[in-house]
Structure formats: structure tokens, C-alpha cells
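Table 4 source record.
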Amino acid sequence: MFSRLKSDVQCILERDPAARTAWEVLTCYPGVHAVLLHRLAHACWTHNFKWLGRFISHLARFFTGIEIHPGAKIGERVFFDHAMGVVVGETAEIGDDCTIYQGVTLGGTSLYKGAKRHPTLGRGVVVGAGAQVLGGFTVGDGAKVGSNAVVTKPVPAGATAVGNPARIIQAELDVKREEVASKMGFSAYGVTQNDDPLSQAMRGLIDNAATQEHQISMLWQALEKLSSQRNESTVVPDDAAVQEHFQADKLNQLVGK
């Protein structure tokens, strides 16, 4: 029991730069208290002391602001960072080394009793603040769920889910974020570096439109030059866009926002 508690405290010292000492973590971090009380509540639940397990979880919510159903399964070195308003459902499973921030819901979309209604988080998953992970699917090992994302389908291992509804960014497209995270030592909040796929698609369309306007402008200029060389009246219409006016930079800035 003490070795498990030691590993819980140590993982927080490694992931939270605000944590200074083990004593501070043990006495002032509600995430630690919530995990400790959940282990007691879960033990009661699995030994068929259902009411006692629910009552302990109710007290834990009152003191920590974190609601974890006693039936949920939580692995080793799980860190609830800040975590006010976190809700973990009955059939949820949280793997080792996961990090969950404030306002997260691991909820269910099914009303059938006894069914797997809540998500399963693999090892090393990070769920950003305000994210909602809803359903009985799996979030793969090392995956990231961005802040305020609403996830209703499986997330592959190593991928990142962002947006509402969540869109999946595969690991090979997320190299820049991982480079930044490696410098910090830990990738917090499921942060992405402007790699939202919808934004990327919009930027691609903007760049394509800018390229087309440039090519059309060059064609009109070439026709105008040929007409002047042959001493012929210009064949370029008055409303032809000889000069480029497409403001790709401003549009990209808007997409970035």
C-alpha cells in the first residue's frame, strides 16, 4: 500500500511543475485524496458492500470535487490534476499513468444496466480540461484528448482527438506537438500545435485559391503583352484580374483563430 502511495506521489512530482515536495502533494492535492478514497470505495464495491462503496465515493466528491463511481477501475500512477468537476462513470476503466484534468467526463450513452457504458482509457492517456469522452469504446495507449473535445468514437493509440465532434489526428501527423512535449518532459492538456485537420483543410483550400489567382493573373498579363507586341488591340477584357487581390494571409490568420 505504501509503495503504491509513493508511486502516486512521485508521478505528480514528475508531471506537475507546481509540485514542490512529497508532503505538499500528499496533503494539498485533491487528486491524490480522490484516488485513495476510490480504492477504499472500490474494495467495498467488489466485496458486495455496495451502499458503503457509494457512500465513500459520495464523501470523496464532497471533499475533493471529483466524482468517481466505486465500480470504476483505476490503474497505477493516475493523476487527476486540479480535477474539480471530474466525473468517472461506473464501467469506466483508466489505465496506468493517465492524466486527467478538470471538468472531464468519462460518461456513458447507453441506459442498459450491466452493459459497458463508459470508456476505457489505455496507458499514458492525457485528457484535457473540459473534455467529454462518452461511450463504451477504447482510447488507445498514449492517446491525447484535447481540451473541450467531445469524443464519441474510439481513438487509436498515439493519436490526438480534438474538436466537437472530435476529429482524429494520427500520430505521424502530430510530430511537432510531440517535439514540444518532449522538451517539456510531459505533454499537458492534450495540446496541439495548430494541427486541427479542419484548419489544415481550410488552409489548403486558401493556398489553392491563391495559386489559381496567381496563374490566371499571369495568363492575362501574357495575353496583354502578346497583343502589344503585334500592335493589335488588346484582347484582355476590362474586368480581367491582371493584378492579384486574393488576401491569403488574412484568411489564414482567421482560420488560425
